[in-house]
Amino acid sequence: MRESASTESSPVTENTVQPRVNRRQAAKVRTRQKVLDAARGLFAERGYEPATIRDIAKGAGMSTGAVFANFQDKAELFEAVLTEDMANLAAVMKTGAGEGSTRDRLVNALSAGYHGSIDQLPLFQAIVARSWFQPVAAETRQRAATEGLTGVIADILRDGIGAGELKQDADVALMTELTWDAYLSNYRRAAYDGWAVKQLSDHIGRQVDILLASVRTGK
To answer: Of 38, 179, 193, 195, which is least surrounded by CB within 10 A?
Structure first.
């Protein structure tokens, strides 16, 4: 009986002994996020090359040494910003897709993507520019960072097949790739022709119409 009573009281002891918060670790997390936020602002404002580590450190209110304590170099910092932003943009596109036909959901999702990113145009220019010159390993990581975005497109296409709107033998992987390429290339229109979100949305709508024309069932 005494052993049983002792056993019953043990959860109280366990509940009162919680792991201590590692203040140094928490401070490092906060510092890392401050660097990311400052870098995001500069990459979005200036692009990749003009945004220096010195300026990023200044924007974060810390030394360059503190930046390098968290990131090996500017390339790694850029990839970290890219990973965070692409995940957030994927959530925006997924929510923006809404209901309706495959065509409407695709256009709505992609338009939401433009709405959520047009104020970071230099960042997207940097993504496209760096994709031509970065090492294979960096390219692989960049593709992984955009998987959430292309996944939204692929899911909408699969739903279209399931609903009977698109042919059963539609090549989802190829359609996703072509749609993503069209979406990304339109940032050039914003950068060099001054297109606003409305123009981008109208244009991607026409591109989606052409891409879906060969795989529609007519329902």
So the answer is: 193
